[in-house]
Prior knowledge:
623 residues; alpha+beta; 19% strand; 6-stranded antiparallel sheet; flat; 16 helices; disordered C terminus; 5-stranded antiparallel sheet
Amino acid sequence: MRKKLFLTNLQIKVMLLFVAIALVPLGVMGAFAIKTAEGLILNMVKNQIEHVATDKAALLERWISERKADLEVIAGSSILRSLDREQIVPYLELVRDRYKVYSEFIVVSHDGSVVYDNSHERSYPQMEKWFQESLAGKSYMSDIDFDPGQKESFFRISTPLLDATGAIKGAVCAKVGTNVILSMVLRISLGETGECYLVNREGTFLAHKEPKRILQENIAQSESFKNIFNASQHRITYIDYRGIEVMGASAKVAGTDWALVVEQDKDEAFHGTERLKQYVYLVAALSAAGALLLAWLLSHYVVNPIRRLSLAATFLAKGEFDRVNIKINRADEIGALYSAFGDMARQLQERQQKLEQRMVLTESELEETGVRLKETQQAAARSQQLASLGRLASGVAHEIRTPLTSLKLFLESFESEIAISPDYEEDFQVAMNQIKRMEATINRFLDFARPQDPIFSLIEIRELIEEALLVIGPKARKQETIIQKSISSTLPKIKGDRKQLGEALLNLMVNALEAVPNRGKVIIAADLRELQTADGMQRCIGIDIGDTGPGIIKENVARLFDPFFTTKATGAGLGLAIVSSTIQRHGGEVMVQSIVGEGTTFSLLIPVDAELMIGEDGKNPDS
């Protein structure tokens, strides 16, 4: 009982309504602000991380390319080609001192004998992959390794030594230290938690700010690794190898199987959003408290007079008009309501009998009147549309078409009599195209307002469809739309107006192209079917023009063929009305099937012997 009283208490409802009005906009704005801030921060951090990863990867690629180019220059020198140790030793020592990144060089002749080796290790180059690749005429680059003695990562590169004839006479291999370049690559500015590291396709760290992880830890089972090398699972946020949710991006290093990864803890990136949430919650709490207090005062001032008025309404409902005389000393809307209520009570008793006598129409009569009224309104609206179209067509023909034709003739004569400068040729063509476009628009109005009787001849439907497809072909190719055809090879010829039917097909195909997005599909099908007419079943050719567009809502399907109705941003809304009129003049009909989100199919049903279906006035007697 108390719960029911709580739900029906007007004062409580007014308080809740006031609180809702006060807090809902604030809540919506707060949620919008938080959502917007999260989106902005996400995009900002995403772009920053992606740019850093791309830039660092590009820097590393450029540095590696420079080292390879250095070695090719060294290998191409006449000193190394000579394979003279006395010349090679000072030359390579000079290279080491100058570039600082080459700690070791090995020069080997074609037969595998070592000409120069400053690695201080006994080596057998014949067993090394770099030597085998060089003898095959290829350059070689190893994976990154770690030198505990030098406390530095390194990799080896090699290239063949060629004589003057281009024959391979040996190979040169260099050990390249990475401390300098990796210190530049790994140094980033992404807050306190931002980091950059290098991994290979097996998930092994090749470079990291913590040296103990290099070549010792593998992250192949972590989401970080899956996010780097699995393009189908790429996400901006994921759990990294430490088990912490981060925002990250990666970039492949060209010419290697390495990937450079840049990450930042998500909590740090979204720290500003959390502070914004706290402020929003605080403001919402303070607003709720203030709104509740104001709502109680307002509801008390409003509800008490309404309760008295409710009691008077109860007496009025019982017919106790002498007890309905209530007064209130207020000049606001509540006072006006009391005054109006008193007048109403005095007039109700006088009008009660009159109202009962006037209710003579039964429910069925009211419904019938409503149906007739609706039909009359629809007919009047359609008549008004057609009348307006007739007047518009007549005015257009007189006011626009005549001067437009004169302008067109003038421009054509101007083109033939006077040589147009190449600078103005494009402008001239634009003007002529716009005149032709205006003429086409005028003709569409006139064709609908004063349709021409069809001129019947034998028509091959396949040819008619192919001609229309030839017209829309360039537009379909431009937006990468697939045209799928399924035309029966046993279609008979029909009697019809070739021009009118061709325009109807072209209109529907253009609509289908405009409905599908890029790389969509338009389906054209034609076969032999049967059409129900007043004379029974008639053989007809069915032409389906479908698309994979967004579809048409049910409320609009019934109005598609109404004049001037369109769902496009541009257009007069006459295309489908003209199509429907053309098919009806051929004794056929147009059907539409549409599913929102899947597409729309227009079906043209045209009797095989259309001329016999048309009366002497050129109209379909069934329509």
